[in-house]
Amino acid sequence: MLKNNFLKGTLQTLILRLLADRGQMYGYQIIKHLSTVTQQQILVKEAALYPALHKLEARGLLESEFREVSGRQRKYYRLSEKGKKVARQEGTELAQFTAAIQQLLRPS
């Protein structure tokens, strides 16, 4: 499992890219998907996810709506038009950063 300090700087970008790829998701879905796709290397707790979602929503990058599912209310998140642009931009920047880090970590 990756240390939490690596995740702090990338969580919002990961959420944006995930929603860009998957469309609409609710919080628990995001947590489970990140865990599954990364083979449990990225484990996000609710205490980290929901503040990140709220910040993205406050920045106008996410839109949300409540839906009733099996008698329970779920809040679904999706990218706004602004969020789609930012997701592409930040996703590209994160990929470039990751590539640069990989070059530094390669054995000589």
Topology of helices and strands:
Elements: H1 4-8, H2 11-22, E1 25-26, H3 27-37, H4 46-58, E2 62-69, E3 72-79, H5 81-105
Antiparallel strand pairs: 1-3, 2-3
Strand order of the largest sheet: 1-3-2
- State the CATH class: Mainly Alpha
- Tell me what portion of residues adopts beta-strand conformation: 15-25%
Element-by-element helix/strand order:
HHEHHEEH
Q: What is the number of independent domains? A: 1
Output mean pLDDT.
91
Number of strands: 3
In which range does the helix fraction lie? Answer: 55-70%
Model regions low in confidence, pLDDT < 50 over at least 5 residues = none
Silhouette: globular
Structural class: alpha+beta
**Biggest β-sheet strands, sense, barrel:** 3 strands, antiparallel
CATH architecture: Orthogonal Bundle
Structural Rg: 15 Å
CATH superfamily: Winged helix-like DNA-binding domain superfamily/Winged helix DNA-binding domain
Annotated CATH topology: Arc Repressor Mutant, subunit A
- Please work out how many helical segments DSSP would assign: 5
Q: Can you put this structure into words, describing what you see?
A:
- The protein has 108 residues and is α+β, with helices and mostly antiparallel strands.
- It has a single domain, classed as Winged helix-like DNA-binding domain superfamily/Winged helix DNA-binding domain (Arc Repressor Mutant, subunit A, Orthogonal Bundle), CATH 1.10.10.10.
- It is built from five helices and three strands.
- It has helices spanning 4-8, 11-22, 27-37, 46-58, 81-105; strands spanning 25-26, 62-69, 72-79.
- The longest helix is centred in the C-terminal third of the chain and has 25 residues, at 81-105.
- The model has no long low-confidence stretch (mean pLDDT 91).
